[in-house]
Amino acid sequence: MVRGLALLTVLAFAGCGSCYNTESVRLSQDDSGRTGADVAVDTGLDASIDVSTDGPALDFAADVAADLTSLDMADGGDACIELSVGELCAIAGPVCGQLTVVDNCGAMRPIDCRPCGANATCEQNACTCGTGYELVGVNCVDLDECTLGTHDCTPMEFCINEPGAFSCANCPMGYRDADNDGVCEDIDECAEGIDACDALVTCANSTGSYVCGACPAGYMDTNGDGTLCEDVDECAGANNCAAVATSTNQIPGFMCACPAGYTDPQGNGTVCNDIDECAAATDMCDANATCQNTPGAYSCMCNNGFVGNGFTCSAGSACPDGFCDVAGGESYETCAADCRSATAIAVGEEHSCALLVDRSVRCWGENIEGELGDGTGLNSAVPVKVLLPMGAVMIGASHDDTCARLTDGSLWCWGDGNEGELGNNTSADSLVPVQVIGLTNVDGFDGGNDAVCAWQTGAGAWCWGSSFHGRLGNGLMSGNQRTPQPVSLAAPVRQLSFGHAHACVTSTQGQLSCWGRNTNGQIGDGTMMHVASPVVVALGTPADRVGLGDDHTCVVIAGALRCWGLNDEGQLGDGNTLTFSPTPIVVPGVSDAVDVDGGSHFTCIRRAGGALRCWGEGDEGQLGNGTGANSTAHVNVTGLSDVVQHLCGNDHTCALRATGDVVCWGQGDQGQIGNGGFMDVSTPTPVSPW
Question: Given 25, 104, 539, 625, which residue has the most CB atoms within 10 angstroms?
């Protein structure tokens, strides 16, 4: 048999006479079981044809051909009976389609053989299969790639067999086809360690997912699903520690501890009871001193006729005699009657300080960053003593810092130091005074938010801390300076004042120069562009004093007043609340001002003779007129006529009277009034005894 040819010789006879071309006889394997009688029927020949069945099937055709030859010789070669189409196709083999053959009688015959089976196609008279099938007989049978493992699906997919092909389908989230059997199985993320739960919580597997447990006590579930547990700093917020106790954050939880001078009856710092050392006779006072109990401590005061620090008293100057004999050993502690007067005050954002005649410094109010300088970090509604290495001769304050010039000329600061505003070349807060590097014998200092400046009269100014918005006046708009840097000034300095993020100086000739943040025109140069170096403000006449609020500026000129900058609460004093003014405006009704200072959104002037007048925001009593209301009109501060110095904080004001007494009013939530309470007051209130 020859496959694929259009012309196939089956049998060739020399006519219908005496010979058979036996070499051309081919029968298919399907005829291997046929008998001689079967062939006789098909051919019309005698049934005596010998059909051998003891050999291979393919030998059957040769046997038939041999018998036909013998038969032809026997009957004279007269027989020629055509084979049927089926027999010709069978002889040709498993072919398909139309083809032409030479039949057993030598005739050219076109025949149409059987078609191919399912999914098969006939090409060049042969059945063929496409990709994904294999040929079985004349049929194409689908190959199951999923079962055979010949697919290319990933472990996170499952294989789906299709006729002649396969497809890969994604398992749902949380499932995978690990065995490549088309079955998606749940992933145990917890067991495999591929969950996103925080290490502090338990992971529980669920069908197609997992669940993270709750964060333990002392931790906050930041994402709300147990994937991130962050320690709760109980010390930074509300906790059940006693008011005087120190709170130390721990992981997890926190610890309360009562300070020295207190008992801890609960053993956990939630209740701290003051120890009265004087009553318990556990004090160390001299026999000639009087013990006075104070919260957490006690003080010793030498009795009249004795001098000393109270722990040691010796006969000396009479007390009281109306004179604080510092050289003779008198101090507030040894002779309060003679040494209680204040000589200067300093006011920060939410704390206040006073310099006493005995050269000690007492502060009160907010102490979170060490503004009070007593080493505790605890707010105080009564004055506490600053732990200075020696006596002070001058004090000043910024928002969250306090500074003092000591008797040896050195400058020391304490409080917030994150931006380098303590001037000691660090970026750390300090609860006690630290020395500013490189400055001595300054004549004044003032500060704003994250920055401090000092000056020498007739000379220059130096600033340190944050340069943001140009507030240091050294040409820089960013970065921190941890030591004093000179300000680029064209004229010698007489006085300097600092707002929130801008500063101004008056020169000895009365020229006014300002620098820093200018969002609301507080620089006074007609623009709202921040400036990193001093610019001269056009006043037309010499300025006597300058005072700054958070975002506004005022100057005293021969008793009159000019202001500019933010005016949202009427702090410019012109009777309205226009948003702002980038150039100086004359404040009406002011003719006898000798000094001016500003708070966050209010302004106060000291008049000749010692009275005070204020205007602007007053909702926390900062105007001092007893109303607790804003006022665009100038209002008199109640009961004051002998003020020698006044300074404004964020929303409170303090004044030093000619008697040496200090009074404060306004916001009191941090204890900044100094009257022992934490409430706002709307009229001047005496500060508690030092």
Answer: 104
